[in-house]
Amino acid sequence: KLAIVIAVDGPAAAGKGTLARRLAAALGLPYLDTGLLYRATGRRVLDRGADPHDAAIAAAEAAALHPDDLARDDLRGPAADMAASTVAAIPAVRAALLDWQRDFGRRHGAVLDGRDIGTVVFPEAPVKLFVTASPEERGRRRWLELLSRGVAADAAQVEAEIRARDAQDAGRAVAPLKPAADALLLDTTRMDAEAAFATALAMVRSRL
Length: 208
Ligand code: C5P
What we know:
Layout: E1 5-9, H1 16-27, E2 31-33, H2 35-47, H3 55-63, H4 78-88, H5 91-108, E3 110-114, H6 117-121, E4 127-132, H7 135-148, H8 155-171, E5 184-187, H9 193-207
Helix pairs in contact: 1-9, 2-3, 2-4, 3-5, 4-8, 7-8
The structure holds cytidine-5'-monophosphate.
Catalytic activity: CMP + ATP = CDP + ADP; dCMP + ATP = dCDP + ADP
Binding site for ATP: 10-18
Enzyme class: transferase
């Protein structure tokens, strides 16, 4: 049985989560959505009525994270998205979450999705995918997803929020969003979920 780490990174709403989950199921590996760690940290800071830019409070909340926090149903939406990205730019928050991610991956191997899995968390991972799509397409997908959940949103605003979050994630000093030098690039702009999965699985197999 495989006990390898597969890193899946990329910008917001590129379809990484769906893809990583399906790869994990196909390969019999555990799956970890690392964005949940930052989302839950941001949520805990907001719950305290604190500012997500407050490094000391955000680091304390990251260190106090409990597994139950990851299953909360209020981790998505414009405020939660931006709070996650803001606490994620704080070095002490990232440091507090690093060992947890490494331990998870090392135990039985894993597919992890995030922004810095291939560059920082598992730079030695044998397989790294960097999944992208155009900002317009990612905005459209997120907007459709909201619609399917009964949330009426403005398409232009959804795209603007995605662009703002990507800019913050790519522009930060520590562990910025970027492909690892040895990552395989997968642009899903013109692919449906099925084609993206088939292409990703072929890419993974080419590296194993
Ligand atoms: O992947 P998701 O959109 O849920 O991530 C939420 C936020 O968490 C991202 O915008 C990013 O700022 C942060 N994040 C990160 N590193 C990761 C995963 C997520 O900085 N590995």
